[in-house]
Amino acid sequence: MGKRSRQRQKNQSTGRDSRDNAGWGNGYADIVKENKLFESYYKELGLVPEGEFEQFMDAMREPLPATIRITGYKSHAKEILHCLKEKYFKDIQELEIDGQKIEAPQALSWYPDEQAWHTNMSRKIIRKSPLLEKFHQFLVSETESGNISRQEAVSMLPPLLLKIEPHHKILDMCAAPGSKTAQLIEMLHADMDVPFPEGFVIANDVDNKRCYLLVHQAKRLNSPCIMVVNHDASCIPTLHINSGGKRDVLFYDRILCDVPCSGDGTLRKNIDVWKKWTTSNSLHLHGLQLRIAVRGVEQLAVGGRMVYSTCSLNPIEDEAVIAALLEKSEGALELADSSADLPGLKWMPGVSSWKLMTKEGMWYSDWSEVPSSRQTQIRPTMFPPTDSEKLASMHLERCMRILPHHQNTGGFFVAVLVKKAPMPWNKRFPKIVTLTRRGKLSRVHPLYLFEENMRSVVCSPHPLFSRPPPLKKMKLFGYKEDPFVFLTEDDPVFTTIQSFYDLSPDFPKLNVLTRTHEGKKRHLYMVSKELRNMLLNNSERMKVINTGVKVWSRNSDGEEFGCAFRLAQEGIYTLQPYIRSRIITVSVEDIKVLLTQENPFLSKLQDHAHAQAKKLGMGSIVLKYIPNPSNPAEPQCSIQLCGWRGKTSIRAFVPRNERFHYLRMLGVEVFKDKQGQKPSDGEKEGKEGEEAEVQKVTEEESVAENEGELDLGNGEENRSSEPKCHFFFYTGK
Q1: Cis peptide before 260 (omega within 30 of 0)
Q2: Rounded Cα distance, 322 and 260, in Å
Q3: Distances (CA, A) of 288 to 195, 214, 292, 333, 635
Q4: I want to staple 704 with a disulfide (CB 3.0 to 4.6 A). Which of 164, 579, 642, 709 is the partner?
Q5: Would the pLDDT of 693 be above 50?
Q6: Can you tell me the distance from the alpha carbon of 200 to that of 184, in angstroms, rounded to the nearest whole number?
Q7: Cβ neighbour number for residue 489 with a 10 Å cutoff
Q8: Would the annotation count 177 as a binding residue?
Q9: Distance of alpha carbon 467 from alpha carbon 458, whole angstroms
Q10: What positions does the entry give for S-adenosyl-L-methionine binding (predicted)?
Q11: Is 528 one of the annotated binding-site residues?
Q12: What are the tens digits of pLDDT across the range 214-244?
């Protein structure tokens, strides 16, 4: 792909960002929401049911509802949902502002287990009500701690239609900014009792800077099964794995192909599209979208599923790409019928007839009508197949188009493809017997041979599937990343870690990595064995931006306590199943003390936890809460926190937003007072049947004043230089 095409792929991600980052507020009130070309084009295509076009256009001009999704893979999801329903939604139902009753958030009918909600509340309304302001702060805090994602409703569809299982190998081809990637990770971790699912997610994006947005999204979920890479999706390299001692080509079980698009389905959110939209946008993008889709199905395993999606309603970007893909596959692909997969979702079936219009207003129904002067811009694959029998066999009606006025959403298109056999152009390169360096016969995988000796077919401009030129050396753009260095089983760093934490014999030492070849190791990370396999076998073939979850960090004073590495909260749920010592079982009241007091004395703990703490020496610890099924008033999910046992005190070493998350789960209402003043007596009395105790806490991660407490040095976790935030905790007695 040339430089211009790469730049176009970066620039045309506007729509994907808009639907992934659906947030609060309307804005853009002065922009005129009119585009006559848009209206005439879609009227002529007839995609909107008869008699509904005015409703369609009216919906397009309305602000998009804000939508949130509760992180589904964590066992805490039910607790968060309970908190939302009981503490916020119930009160909002009774709320009136300026004489107008506020509409409470509603669950998306088609999203499983009430894990997704939408609301029409704007920022202006939120600012007028202390209750709504608290609700907004709750959402912001839970989003930052990874327990809630703000994401447009239609953006949630592709991961659901992929039907992810924990063992699936998944590729997200155009992943940034990462909301759908987060969904994929959640589905892999459906069972939180399994720290390392067999599957993994490779999240790719062409834009180096956007890859770091992707890292930020993925980091919130603390998964050892995600890798972020930086490649052009239309030429993403074939990866290899070691399987049973043999080098094999990696094929993915599931692929998400959410391609760059014109974004006309995002008009409700991305207001600039109203004045920028022309039909030429789709004509410029069609070739890129098809090349990305072709590269996707090449890397899909036989029996696997690929979801192709856009936030465009234009058939040139939608059905035309699917039809071209099906036609070239010669039966290797078929469209899956997903009509029963999401009950409650309203959608329009795909079309099998469409026309093409230039920005000057010229219409073409068939390739034969296109003048030669236009044939570089307009391609045959943009039109429906002319063979009616072949067209009918494609079942394009199985594609799904979401119209904004049907369920108050953005516009969207999605199609589910199932791979029945290898792609025909891969079959045409038979296995070739070659001599190895030692003179032995060896068989070369056809796809490997194809890639090693020539560029991928999808990188050839025209014709699309002709034999390509020789492979060029991969060019890397953007920042140079630190190396990923795996430790050996006999690495000296494990000597004290093994004894201090009493790691179980099955602890996967080979999965531990660091980011430096030389000097002291500051942080240790863990990945799943499958990602380790990929990293070791593809270091020269792919540009890895980030992978692994942090499990230990070096503590400058730790060695005098028996171990130079303290536990990291990010990786505690991954690591804890292998730790057999330095665990303190705590109660709900213990956690409240630990999270609202910076360095409480050991005597502040209840008797059981106090007795355990007294038996431990100074250093890093695990604070573990085990739910009690006989007491449903308490959280019914396990909680694991990193802590530090000092000489006379103890502390929870947990980031600010995560502290607030756990406190809310324990029934403590947390909110930020912007004026730095305590709430009025009237606000305190407003809590029904509760006498509130106000406890002002300065939240800071500075070094504890108590003797023997943790010294962070200059590591990443030293947040003492951050501004102090004052919060109020209301705890009903």
Answers
A1: no
A2: 15
A3: 38, 22, 6, 20, 49
A4: 709
A5: no
A6: 9
A7: 9
A8: yes
A9: 10
A10: 174-180, 205, 232, 258
A11: no
A12: 999 888 889 999 999 999 999 999 999 998 8
Kindly report the backbone phi and psi dihedral angles of residue 609, in degrees, each rounded to the nearest multiple of 5, phi listed first. -70, -35
Instruction: Report whether pLDDT(67) > 80.
Output: yes
Integer Rg of the chain from CA: 28
- Binding residue per annotation — 180? yes
Omega before residue 468 within 30° of 0, cis:
no
The answer to whether residue 140 scores a pLDDT higher than 80 is: yes
Whole-number average pLDDT of the chain: 82
DSSP 474: P
**Which segment of 265-274, 421-430, 437-446 scores lowest on mean pLDDT?**
437-446
**Cα dihedral 686→692→696→701 (10° resolution):** -100
Is there a binding annotation on residue 176?
yes
* Counts for the chain of helices (H) and strands (E), in that order: 25, 34
Look up residue 268 and give its two tokens: 């409700």
Q: Please name which of 228, 139, 114 lies closest in space to residue 182, comparing C-alpha atoms.
A: 228
Sign of CA dihedral 313, 314, 319, 325: negative
Nearest to 15 by CA among 229, 282, 293: 282
Task: Please give the Cα distance from 297 to 422 (Å, whole number).
Answer: 9
For 189-246, the three-class secondary structure string (H helix, E strand, C coil) is CCCCCCCCCCCEEEEEECCHHHHHHHHHHHHCCCCCCEEEEECCHHHCCCCEEEECCE
Higher pLDDT among residues 13 and 181, named by residue: 181
Give the containing element (helix H, strand E) for 546: strand 544-547
- Of the candidates 251, 230, 280, which has an alpha carbon nearest to the alpha carbon of residue 547? 230
Q: Does the annotation list 205 as a binding residue? A: yes
Amino acid letter for position 560: E
Q: Annotated active-site positions, please?
A: 311
Phi, psi of 33 (to 5 degrees): -90, 70
Q: Which two tokens stand for residue 651?
A: 């502390």
Query: DSSP label at 351?
Result: P
The strand pair at 169-172 and 246-249 is best described as: unpaired
pLDDT of residue 575: 93
Within 8 A by CB and 6+ apart from 562, the residues are 496, 499, 500, 617, 619
Please state, in angstroms and rounded to a whole number, the distance separating the CA atoms of residues 644 and 599.
10
Task: Express each pLDDT in 540-560 by its tens digit.
Answer: 889 999 999 999 999 877 677
